[in-house]
Amino acid sequence: MGDKATETVDAFHRGAFHIVQPKGRGHRSGMDAMLLAALVADDRSIRVADLGAGAGAAGMAVASRLDLADVVLFERSAEMAEFARKSLLLEENARFASRVAVVEADVTLVGGARNDAGLIDDSFHHVIMNPPFNDASDRLTPDALKAEAHAMTDDLFERWVRTAGAIMIPGGQLSLIARPQSIGEIIAACGRRFGGIEITPVHPREGENAVRILVTAIKGSRARLTLRAPLVMHGEGTHKFSDFVDDLNNGRAAYARK
Question: What whole-number distance in Å separates Cα of residue 91 and Cα of residue 76?
Answer without folding.
Answer: 26
